[in-house]
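User: Structure please.
Assistant: Input sequence and predicted structure:
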Amino acid sequence: MYETILVPVDGSAGADEALRHGVDLARHYDATVHLVYVVDIGVYGHYGGVDAIEHAEEALEEAGEELLDAARDTVTEAGLPVEVHLTRTTPHEGITDTARQVDADLIVVGTERRSAEYRHMLGSVSERVIRTTRVPVHLVKADTGPGPEVEIRAAVPEDARTVRDVASRSMQRSYGSFLEASTIDAAVDDWFGRERFEDLLGDPTAIVLVAEADGTVVGFSQGHVVETPSGSTGTVHWLHVSPNHRSRGIGKQLFEHTSVALGERDVDRIRGLVLAANERGAAFYRAMGLEEVGRQEVELGGESRAELVFAEPETPGAGADERQPVATTTEEGETLYVDYDESEIGSQAPFFAAYRTADRETRYGWFCSNCESFDTAMDPMGRIVCNQCGNRHKATRWDAVATE
């Protein structure tokens, strides 16, 4: 009876319930499921300024791609063929136009209870779809009661296994398109093995928080306080949310709680690091009010990759000189330039990038802030080691944000 079923997704309880019904119908009729997310031009069109509109549209597109990815996984796990569509228009037009383009036999759309006043003023998307399409519509009413409450708390050693699982699944989803699975697996083993996780929790510079829903850890964040001659910086090294819990604001809650915790350590500025290839992570930081302030290189899987640095906007008239490298003389009398905005966590104190020139065009190596030495090297695993005091680079991250 049905060969092509269209299911709109938008992250609401109604859409989630409609997806479950759509999958059941498709399984019964051996149909193909088409998923559509509509970037609502009526939303970002009301933002002020061209730049604001571009960022709003970008954020909505990123959210849509996340929702489509999660919904596609649900359909695929049911053993059904699936195709996804992202369009930019008003919601009901996007749904009806896509139904026409894919020659859908049925539209399965969710609906939630609205007030009589709301329906009188605007009408619901589902009601408009029913009025404007010739395709049969299966309307699914959803229970819009409160979802599982999310608790943000400090991580404990017993969270090691679930944090490791979240990291693995989150990175496979976010980075699987440009990183080998073996690279991700090795990184997770290195960073979140039981002993390393306990060491991390014992690090006085670290702040590790988890998001727990229904007694299960579904996300986590890792921040560090980095002391520099000009003050202290709170750096977000990790922020990951399990794929099936994304686009529910958990990442935002983790970031806000991490920022507050770093602020309680009297940091002067919050910053975050993210691979340049992780466009969604960059969009997340922008949505959190940070701005891109720099770019650096990071070794990953034997390759050098670009990493973006985001930070809180500086107050007018302050801080311009703080990002300039500081000239320092070595024991041999050579002048090197230490960039205190480019750091790596050490077992005893941070390492900071060192350059031969003030313009940071020629890299020298790393400066150990524990013993103020440039006598550093790389061990066989690619980690920084200070030859003077034994300070070692801790395996903390190569990327920060995976999702919202």
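The chain has three domains: 4-141, 150-311, 320-386.
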